């Protein structure tokens, strides 16, 4: 486990905008409670609370990955309009203590879904 610091900063802030996630035109998530995670020089990621996602459209996959800062990630595919978008969501179900805020949240690959932020 590594801690964020000056060499690898990570910040988590409440996103004041409404965040909608669509897969093939189907709304997968719609929230006013997203968290914006900014990590080092990577693009910002929106983490959406699970309760604001249509979990009926999601199917857990066997994929897992490890981040030395956040912990172990699990993945979901989205089933929308008869199509499966494989491993399009990741989640840290038991993140390391420094990243505890993102527990219970889902993050979406922006190249696999449409993520809209509206005021």
Characteristic terms for this protein:
119 residues, globular, DUF427, seven-stranded antiparallel beta sheet, DUF427 domain-containing protein, DUF427_sf, mainly beta, three-stranded antiparallel beta sheet, Metal Binding Protein, Guanine Nucleotide Exchange Factor, Chain A
Q: What would you say this structure looks like, in words?
A:
InterPro entries: DUF427, DUF427_sf. Residues 19-111 form the DUF427 domain. The protein has no helices and ten strands. It has 119 residues and is mostly beta strands. The strands form two sheets. Strands 1-4-5-9-8-7-6 form a seven-stranded antiparallel beta sheet, with no helix packed on it. A three-stranded antiparallel beta sheet has the order 3-2-10, with no helix packed on it. The radius of gyration is 14 Å and the shape is globular. The model has no long low-confidence stretch (mean pLDDT 97).
Protein topology:
Elements: E1 10-14, E2 18-23, E3 26-31, E4 35-39, E5 45-49, E6 58-67, E7 71-80, E8 83-91, E9 105-108, E10 114-118
Antiparallel strand pairs: 1-4, 2-3, 2-10, 4-5, 5-9, 6-7, 7-8, 8-9
InterPro entries: DUF427 (IPR007361), DUF427_sf (IPR038694)
Organism: Bradyrhizobium archetypum
Domain DUF427: 19-111
